[in-house]
Amino acid sequence: MTIQWADRAPTSGQPFEEGPRTSCSRSWTGISVEVVDLHGRAGWHLEDLRSQQPRLTAVLEEIGGRVEMRLAPPCPAPARNSASQRPDGHLTFIPAGTPVWECAGRFRYIRRVVIDFDIPALTARFDCGLEFPSHFVPRLMFSDTRVQALAGLLADACASPHLDSRSYGDSLALAIVYNLFRPALAARQKRGGLAPAQLRRVTARMAESLFDPTSIEDLADMTGLSASYFSRAFKASTGMAPHRWYLTERVRRAQRALLETNDSLAEVALASGFADQSHFTRAFRTITGASPGAWRKSREA
């Protein structure tokens, strides 16, 4: 929506004069960025900053006035040169399609950067297991010094003419994503479990290595956790230690073979990854409470 300017508060049907502005835009892995510089006139500024993707707006500079972010256009217009004691600059995050209005009274200069997030692309990019929320909620005019600083650096990278700034921009983009969305991940890990994406990747690797188990250290590396923390988190998520998970999956494979084939117990044991029938019997009894032969017979009855 076009920026609106007037010498007094906007009214319905009134023509508005657009003030001077410059902008530049650029895309990096999973994000698109636009930096806008607004040079004020003696009027009101009102702009709808909604996006078709989740969006972070960072107000980087405010000179001669204050910028406010609202979910509905103000009526009447915002007060001139608000006496708010908050520090310059703030962040606003909105879900896709959510109206959010940037408004200000008389001011000299505003510099902002808007960052749109391509969640599927970021999910693929964050192979380390960052789990994005299933539903986003608006966060208006909040402070995060780390994200604010990263947004400022990303704005500078956006305006840079150097072609070699892509890797630098990608790094900044990923740092912003991590710092913006990590509270949800941290809260989940604080409860002791793995994030769903982490658990899916780990159990997929374990299923592929059923007969030659992946080490705890290698599984932990997939999640960025220490081996000891990973073991605790895995148990909190699945109810069993990694070793027990492997054992249970082998027994489940053996159960299918016992029901679907006429193979001997020794043949089922070897096909399910057990060293011998004795090992198979002990493991099967541990998991099911019955011997393989007794379990098969009870299902055939």
From TrEMBL:
Q: Which UniProt keywords apply?
A: DNA-binding, Transcription, Transcription regulation
- Location of the HTH araC/xylS-type domain: 200-298
Disordered: annotated span: 1-23
Tell me where on the tree of life, at the top rank, the source sits: Bacteria
DNA-binding keyword on record: yes
- Protein biosynthesis as a keyword of this entry, yes or no, is no
Q: Where would you find the membrane-spanning parts of this chain?
A: none
The protein's matches in Pfam families, at most eight in alphabetical order, are given as: HTH_18
For this entry, the protein name equals AraC family transcriptional regulator
